[in-house]
Specification:
The complex is a heterodimer.
Chain A: E1 4-6, E2 14-18, E3 23-30, H1 35-49, E4 57-66, H2 68-82, E5 87-93, H3 98-110, E6 114-119
Parallel strand pairs in A: 3-4, 4-5, 5-6
Antiparallel strand pairs in A: 1-2, 2-3
Helix pairs in contact in A: 1-2
Chain B: H1 2-13, E1 16-22, H2 26-42, H3 47-67, E2 71-72, E3 77-78, E4 81-87, E5 91-101, H4 105-116, H5 120-133, H6 146-154, E6 159-166, E7 169-179
Antiparallel strand pairs in B: 1-4, 2-3, 4-5, 5-7, 6-7
Helix pairs in contact in B: 2-3, 3-6, 5-6
Chain lengths: 120, 181
């Protein structure tokens, strides 16, 4: 399966989706001008991955900031993952960033997936 | 030349550390954010405060990019808006002003009144209701969550006003306070 690897920029997150090495990660800052356009290829990739997933998928969110438009698309990304068996979410947040911790908790309340919260 | 001094004095009086007047784009948004971040870094601002200010700034700036209307009179055509940050001992004050169409004023006012009537949990529930019920982004690419998010990060009511500009437009001013204590 193709690998999606995007370097992070000042307004888009770093993306690494690599089935072969079992790495699934979105990290950094997300405030793109067009959030729907940015996230669509990621959601498409996940849907395709869902046709033949690994037994276990640890999907990492390590975001330092996201805007509200991205928040909607992150929910859509999580919804796509919800349909795949064996998916766990690792939600990283800076130790002192209560808002990012709470954002993860809210997603976990909206989505039927196992979340592990990881301060760093 | 007097206006230069007057503008300078007015900025000092209102503790304004950054002002941008002009066209708003994603590129401008990134530049303004970078300047504000450098400013907060240079004074060693606490990271939790910095993040909240950054958060409110992004929503404010991207609202202007998405929703500000062009202002056309016989003398001139302008699609500019204004954005400012004030810094006080106990707070940062993020303000913006931009023209919007008269017909959108009532809806916007209702939305802001609803937000200001809610407490912390009420805002959290409203945020969750909006994010799970919407089927996608609006045609302008927004999630309809910007003001709710600003109110949550601020923890204080959003202050706003509408000034009639004529030509079917109103000037929407918004003031969001982030406490430093």
């Amino acid at each position: 399966m193709e690998i999606i690897s995007l370097e992070g920029t000042e307004d888009t997150p770093k993306i690494l989706l690599d089935k072969g090495n079992s790495i699934f990660e979105i990290s950094g800052r997300s405030l793109p001008e067009d959030a729907a356009e940015f996230y669509q290829p990621i959601i498409d990739w996940i849907r395709k991955y869902g046709e033949d997933p690994l037994d276990e998928t640890i999907f990492v969110f390590k975001l330092e900031y996201f805007n509200t438009a991205s928040s909607k698309l992150i929910l859509d990304t999580l919804s796509a993952l919800e349909d795949i068996p064996g998916v766990k979410i690792h939600w990283y947040f800076y130790e002192d960033d209560e808002d990012m911790e709470e954002a993860g908790e809210e997603f976990s309340e909206l989505i039927d997936l196992e979340f592990e919260f990881k301060p760093y | 030349m007097r206006y230069i001094f007057d503008l300078h004095q007015m900025m000092l009086k209102n503790n304004i550390i950054l002002v941008y007047e002009g066209e708003f784009t994603q590129e401008i948004t990134k530049s303004v954010l970078a300047m504000a971040e450098r400013n907060m870094d240079s004074v060693g601002e606490e990271s939790t405060i910095k993040r909240k200010v950054f958060n409110v700034m992004v929503e404010c700036l991207q609202n202007i990019v998405k929703y500000s209307e062009e202002y056309v009179t016989e003398e001139k055509r302008s699609n500019t808006a204004i954005f400012m940050i004030g810094k006080f001992d106990d707070s940062y004050v993020i303000t913006s002003g931009n023209p919007i169409k008269d017909e959108t004023v009532a809806e916007l006012q209702n939305k802001l009144e609803q937000i200001n009537s809610l407490d912390k949990d009420g805002l959290k529930n409203l945020y969750k209701d909006i994010i799970k019920s919407s089927t996608g982004l609006t045609e302008k690419g927004g999630a309809g969550l910007g003001f709710v998010d600003m109110a949550r990060k601020s923890g204080q009511p959003l202050e706003y006003s509408f000034e009639n500009m004529g030509n079917g437009l109103s000037f929407f001013s918004l003031k969001v306070t982030i406490s430093r204590v």
